[in-house]
Specification:
Blueprint: E1 9-11, E2 15-17, E3 20-21, E4 25-31, E5 44-50, E6 56-58, E7 73-82, E8 94-104, E9 106-111, E10 114-119, E11 127-136, E12 140-149, E13 155-161, E14 170-171, E15 178-179, E16 181-182, H1 191-200, E17 209-211, E18 213-215, E19 220-225, E20 231-233, E21 245-248, E22 253-258, E23 264-270, E24 275-280, E25 290-297, E26 302-307, E27 316-323, E28 328-334, E29 338-347, E30 350-356, E31 361-369, E32 372-378, E33 383-390, E34 395-401, E35 406-413, E36 422-427
Parallel strand pairs: 17-20, 18-21, 19-22, 20-23, 21-23, 22-24, 23-25, 24-26, 25-27, 26-28, 27-29, 28-30, 29-31, 30-32, 31-33, 32-34, 33-35, 34-36
Antiparallel strand pairs: 1-36, 2-35, 3-16, 4-5, 4-7, 6-13, 7-12, 7-15, 8-11, 8-13, 9-10, 9-12, 13-14
Length: about 425
């Protein structure tokens, strides 16, 4: 099944879609006319969502759950259980999970339709039964548990143990380990963000225009544009096509600042050991609507991007594409609706990005091997992140902090004998 993990510590994630709604476990009860009891019934005594806490119940000679009966009754529990990831393991690793049932009387456990424990014909005092099944760490599976009480005392208990995660037998919790439903989604931009992106990418401008093509090393370039609707792009521009500005060479230092709002920046850097710093907007009376598209081809380049907005509704759009090794990227988008697309091919690069403030935040990031990624989305708006880690030993830390909706979709492909990276996701 698709793995589901709301607040996750994962390593080498294979497929990762959030989130489960943890809400105890669904239950049904029915009358048992003869022994052994039937495992289903069209005539239920009771049903609902059981706020059961840990699976450690001794009803004695009293009423079993809310069935209205103390004898000759069946309880059926149904939900989804997620296998924790061993601390020194990886998501997708095969682990041998052992379940421990202690029932008085009948006991039956199925995981994804596979029978793990079968003592359904049991008629006895509380007796222990164990069973093992090989599952994948971080994956979510269908959970079904039956309990049958004939006469006398009534006991339902269940523990489990995942090697490398549980140090000893641990109670299965109906509140924390089992979900009544699985909600799976893929992070996506809002309709307003998509409209914003298409509008900004029209790349029209009525303010200052600067067209750059530079070849050589050790260039020191500083540009400041004041006012609205400014453009930095490449030469050979026509009304139909705007080329990217290009700096080709090594050791160049470029600082570009576009103040106010509705600015467009198209910029390519081809070379090594270059330093590019870009700032759009300001913290005072900026209306947003800035767009930046940056391409880097080379090694050991240092790139920083800041798009600022003082809380207006208009948003920001940025796209950063990097091919090469050992590059460092830091980006920040502040206030309003924000969209960020990042694609890094190569290895040993580091990326830190922060989307904060008001408005809706969306980012789409694709990374190669040996990358280090730190993502923060914070503020009062909705947060969505789509991240693809393609390769090995990439590490991801994703923090989403909002009073509104927070969604993410993480897809990592990793086949490496030396191990894969670490993924840590926190939602507050």
């Amino acid at each position: 099944m698709t793995s589901v993990w709301a607040t996750a510590l994962a390593t080498a994630l294979i497929l990762f879609n959030a989130t489960n709604t943890w809400a105890d476990v669904n239950y049904e009860t029915w009358y048992c006319p003869s022994w052994p009891c039937q495992q289903s019934s069209n005539t239920l005594l009771s049903s609902g969502t059981w706020a059961g806490g840990t699976m450690n119940y001794n009803w004695g000679s009293g009423e079993v759950l809310d069935s209205g009966r103390s004898d000759r009754v069946v309880v059926h529990l149904d939900g989804y259980i997620t296998v924790p990831i061993p601390f020194n393991g990886s998501a997708g690793d095969s682990v041998t999970v052992t379940f421990y049932n202690q029932d008085d009387d009948g006991s039956l456990l199925k995981i994804d339709g596979t029978t793990v424990i079968d003592d359904w014909s049991g008629l006895h005092s509380p007796s222990t039964r164990t069973g093992t099944i090989t599952l994948q760490a971080g994956e979510t599976y269908r959970y079904e548990r039956w309990f049958a009480e004939w006469t006398g005392g009534a006991v339902l208990r269940q523990l489990w143990q995942v090697p490398g995660y549980h140090g000893s037998w641990t109670w299965v919790s109906a509140t924390h380990n089992i979900a009544t439903t699985v909600t799976s989604y893929t992070s996506a931009p809002t309709a307003a963000q998509t409209t914003l992106r298409n509008t900004l990418r029209a790349l029209t401008h009525s303010g200052n225009g600067i067209y750059i093509d530079q070849v050589g090393d050790d260039l020191d370039l500083d540009i400041v544009q004041d006012g609205d609707n400014n453009l930095i792009a490449g030469t050979g521009t026509t009304s139909a096509t705007i080329a990217k500005a290009e700096i080709a060479g090594d050791g160049n230092t470029i600082a570009l600042e576009q103040k106010s709002d509705s600015n467009v920046l198209l910029f390519d850097v081809d070379g090594n050991y270059n330093n590019l710093a870009v700032s759009q907007g300001n913290d005072l009376a900026d209306g947003g609507s800035n767009v930046a598209t940056i391409g880097i081809n080379g090694d050991y380049n240092d790139v920083s991007l800041a798009q600022k907005n003082s809380g207006f509704e208009n948003g920001q759009f940025a796209s950063i594409s990097i091919t090469g090794n050992d590059n460092y990227v830091a980006s920040q988008q502040q206030d309003s609706d924000q969209m960020l697309f990042i694609d890094i091919t190569g290895s040993d690069s580091s990326l830190t990005t922060n989307q904060k403030g008001t408005g809706n935040h969306f980012l789409d990031i694709s990374l190669g091997s040996d990358q280090t990624l730190s993502v923060t989305q914070e503020g009062s708006g909705n947060h969505a992140a789509t991240i693809a880690l393609d390769g090995y030993s990439s590490s991801l830390q994703l923090n989403q902090n909002s009073s509104s909706n927070q969604t993410y979709s993480i897809d990592q492909t990793c086949a490496n004998a030396n191990g894969c990276g670490t993924t840590v996701v926190t939602q507050n």
